[in-house]
């Protein structure tokens, strides 16, 4: 075994070790998205479940392939390295497809979220026992916002049969207290609580797009490392000269 081959095997072992770790990270992220994403399903039209499942499956496959790549490089098995290259190539194709789908969704995210929020506010009753009400409250508390486009939505876009239109939800208040948002639109109320007046749509869309940017960066890092590994495995297989699997 020449110095070049030994170096190639070492580099491939290191790169596959990195991919193995990244695959495990992707697997864990998928589980977190699956568990925590239930609060966002209503907002993003139940798209967190297929995304999380895809992350779990792809992460697990990448971790397994990374492990096999390490083993194949150390044994310098021609058949194992060929299988490894083919599987890795298929994974890259799947990642590209996933990236395209994510890009398409990012363009549609504002429309999807806007439609969901419009339905939420029309059905809003103020009860945390109602799933959509709870989600909207969490969003307003998390992003320090109120309504869809702004706080006036609680007067203009709610159903007066379900919501008292002179009130805003307590989750709109800067300092949230019980009934702090009551009678906010009542002109006779001189002790109005301070509320967040910016709408939640823009802030929610920005948060989704920021997360998508992180996904794109991670995906690009995966693809670059995987291409390098395919090159290394092909070179090692060529140098194997009949090593049996």
Structural summary, described in words:
It contains six helices and no strands. By secondary structure, the protein is mainly alpha-helical. Helix 1 runs antiparallel to helix 2, helix 2 packs antiparallel against helix 3 and helix 3 runs antiparallel to helix 6. It is 68% helix and 0% strand. The protein has a domain of 127 residues. 30% of the residues are buried. The mean pLDDT is 82.
Topology:
Elements: H1 3-36, H2 48-75, H3 78-123, H4 131-143, H5 153-156, H6 200-240
Helix pairs in contact: 1-2, 1-6, 2-3, 3-6
Task: Provide key terms for this protein.
245 residues; mainly alpha; 6 helices; 68% helix; rod-shaped
Give a quick precis of the structure.
This protein is mainly alpha-helical and 245 residues long. The chain has helices spanning 3-36, 48-75, 78-123, 131-143, 153-156, 200-240.
